[in-house]
Amino acid sequence: MKTLTSFLLASMLFISNLFTQYFWTEQVSGVSTSLTSVSNIDAFNAWACGPNGLVIRSTNSGYNWSNLSGNGLPSNISLVHIFGINSTAALAAGYIGSTTYVYRTSNSGANWSVVFTQPNGFVNGIWMQNSASGFIQGNPVGGRWSLWKTTSGGVNWDSTGLFLSQVNGELGFSNSIWGFNSEIWFGTNKSRIYHSTNGSPPWQSQTTAPNTNIYSIWINQSTGALGYAGGDSLSKTTNGGSLWTTNTSISSGTINGLASILSLSNYWYIRSNSNLYFSNSGGPWSVQYTAPSGTYNHISGVRTNFIGGPGAIYAVRDNGGISRLNFFVEGVTFISSEIPSDYHLFQNYPNPFNSTTIFRFDTPKLSKSSGDEVRGGYVRIITYDAAGREEGSLVNEVLQPGSYKVDWEGNDLASGIYFYRLLVSDPSTGSILYSMSRKMVMIK
User: Fold this and answer.
1) Which CATH class is domain 23-326?
2) Using only C-alpha atoms, what is the Rg of the chain?
């Protein structure tokens, strides 16, 4: 029994150490206009939207994004919120002039149809509890909040029995909605969050003062107890919102997005700049990643249980940029988070080697990093044969500053002399920051 217990503890420690190696990488969205909302279903399937009827989708963990605009989506609609139901179905909300609309697709964007419209309204958020039942929350119209339910997967919407009076001219914000089982929370601009246990009256008014404008909400989907609310500042609850207290945050600007990996008690927020902020188990917040350009608009973590790998969280920006969180960089092992002072490519080991060897390298933060930002370069490791012909690329992505190692297998290559090169460039300009090559010998 002691041996088994020791093994389980060691395994848990290994998994914990592995999964706390977080890395952000930039994805190619195919668009350069603003992305206002992203919905992350299960790390594989995600949807995002923006102005001019823009909708994009990935079904392979963010490696590729397809543009699903048109096909019934007006080119003049400004989309502000999207909810991905599954890989083929989604609901997107936006406005044309003073009229708000919700569009639905059930065939991967091949066709979009209007399922909801309201003059002088503005839909802030949609939350689907499952493939059939869901909830719309919009700004008040005629003195009452615009609240609607569906039991038909978003095809039909009904507001019967959902009356909630507008108080003191209050309004809501795009993406400021959260659901857990049948419960709903949404934020306002009056130091107030509304909460319902079933999306119907009675609604509990939760006070967030002195945090006035609640632009984002996240509640623990496992227990419905721990939660954060972001706005002018950061608020925290440990009892589902019955009591909100001020939580110390860093930097300034609107906190317009929150996300978490529940199994590890790790949390992130964005706040109208190019940084992603991180807290481990509710500890102090720090800058974990800085985007090469643009300002973050929204962030979304997976809604399902997640084991690891790419796609845990997506964060979208005002220039079409998408940052993706990985639990670990595929093919690359993180050695140390201590930031090196210089770039360095070490000699591979073993060398000579029989088919398999290891490359080690250090990458510091970019010189343009300032204040509390931490920015890394775009890193490539390339292998060549003796004639200088490129054999392959082992690493090809933006890495945060640190020390790394990567395994290389040459099973399909002949014995002989080979070379490997570390090439680092500035992610924003493409200018070369560092280049170093070394020789290695494979003997089979």
Assistant:
1) mainly beta
2) 24
